[in-house]
Each structure stands twice: as C-alpha cells, then as structure tokens.
Write a structure and sequence with these properties.
- It contains 8 helices and 10 strands.
- The longest helix has 19 residues, at 21-39.
- Strand 5 (162-165) and strand 6 (171-175) form a beta hairpin.
- It has helices spanning 6-19, 21-39, 47-58, 63-73, 106-119, 148-157, 180-189, 211-226; strands at residues 83-90, 96-103, 123-124, 134-142, 162-165, 171-175, 196-203, 207-209, 230-235, 237-239.
- The strands form 3 sheets. A 4-stranded antiparallel beta sheet has the order 3-1-2-9.
C-alpha cells in the first residue's frame, strides 16, 4: 500500500482520540468487560484481555476502573450485558467500511449506525459484502527515524510477515495476530515504542478521497467514532 498520506492519517486519528478521552475510556472499558467475559479475568491466560489492558494503560484509564471492568466481565460485579456486533457498509465514494460495535442494545446501535451512514452519504451492506477486502493482522507503525534494516531484522526474527518503509520514513510491520505479542515484546526489549500497536483489519486496497469527498468521509468517520457503541471503524478510505 502506498504511504502518500498514511502518516498524516494516523496522526489525525490519534489527535481525534486524544480530544475524545472520555469516549475512548468508555470503549476501552467495554473491551475489557467483553474480553474478561469471553476469556476469563487472568491476563496471563487471556491474550485479548492483555491487549485491552495495555491500551487502557496507554490511555491512562484509572486502575480501579480497570479492575471493576474485569470484575464485571467475570460476573463478580453487576453490569450491562454487552455483545459484539459487526456491520459492513460503504461510505463516500464507495469506500468500504467495517464497523465493530459492543452494545447492550442491538436495536439502538443498528439504528444509530444506519442513521449516520445515510446522513453522510453511506449505506449499510450485507454480511460479507466488504470484509473480503480486509485482512485480520497484527499491525505496528513506527515514527520516522528508526533504522529500517534493524527493524526488519528484529521483526522478522520475531515472526513478522512484512516490513514496509513508507515515503515519509515511517515503518509498518505486519504480522499474523498470533505473532502480535512476540513482536510487541521484541520491540519493547529494543526500547522502541510504536505509534500504533494493534490487532486490526487492514484493507488490501485504497479508496483515495480528496476535496469535498474527503471532508464528507472524515465527517462520517468522526460521527461513527463518536458513538459509544462503536469500538473500531476500519475503512479502505485514504483521505488527502
């Protein structure tokens, strides 16, 4: 994939997340609850919970809040019964969208998602309508400045599938989800802190949007991400 605007897109996304701290906390707490419910409350035995806790620490979620979320997930504290739902659809210019949600009210969530899509030039699709355009993988993004050869050596030794240096000097590392933790430890041992470290759905294609189309798509993405029920939005859109 071309890196012509990837770094700018990532920085914009991080800036948006920082500006919506309380919204991010809500999403992280829900992820911890679901992870603990599905895999147990011991992070040593639950890789999904380990990743959720890592993200929560990065976002400075209070320890007591994290502890209570785990207890709610394991049923030791009362709390909402969240379920995971995935919607697929299209945005501006035909850009594909995967919208992962965690909700205690499926009817509310689908209505909110459908409303935002229709209001901003998008529409819901059927299951499987766009997911074939995406690959489930571990993903790391490093800021410009690291030595590509050194990153490649460490990454490949730890199980990475691909290392890509973008035009502006940032470095991407792609791996199978099962190799994510090994890579994360290998990078930490080197003292490298990635700008992005996540298990994600990465698009195999790009829909480049500029001008008015880009602005409308950004509004659509922002509106979706503002919903507490929406955990992650993945898209083929690259906004210039």
């Amino acid at each position: 994939m071309s890196g012509h605007s990837k770094w700018a897109n990532i920085q914009h996304r991080k800036g948006r997340q920082d500006a919506k701290r309380s919204n991010i906390w809500t999403k992280l707490i829900r992820e911890i609850i679901v992870a603990a419910r599905l895999g147990g409350g011991d992070p040593d035995m639950n890789p999904r919970l380990r990743l959720a806790l890592l993200k929560a620490r990065g976002a400075n979620v209070p320890k007591d809040t994290v502890k209570n979320a785990i207890l709610k997930g394991t049923g030791q504290l009362e709390g909402a019964n969240y379920e995971e739902i995935r919607y697929e659809g299209y945005g501006v210019g035909g850009a594909a969208l995967i919208i992962d949600c965690t909700t205690d009210n499926r009817t509310r969530t689908v209505a909110d998602v459908r409303h935002i899509l229709s209001k901003n030039g998008g529409n819901l699709g059927t299951d499987g309508s766009v997911s074939f355009m995406f690959k489930h993988c571990g993903y790391f993004l490093f800021a410009p400045g690291l030595n590509e050869d050194e990153v490649m050596e460490v990454a490949l030794d730890a199980g990475a599938d691909d290392v890509i240096k973008e035009d502006e000097g940032s470095i991407e590392v792609i791996c199978d989800p099962s190799a994510f933790e090994a890579l994360n430890r290998a990078f930490a041992d080197k003292g490298w802190t990635p700008e992005v470290a996540e298990v994600t759905w990465r698009s195999d294609t790009e829909t480049v949007l500029t001008g008015d189309e880009g602005e409308r798509m950004q509004r659509l993405l922002d509106a979706l991400e503002d919903l507490d029920d929406v955990q992650q939005v993945y898209t083929t859109a690259v906004i210039e």
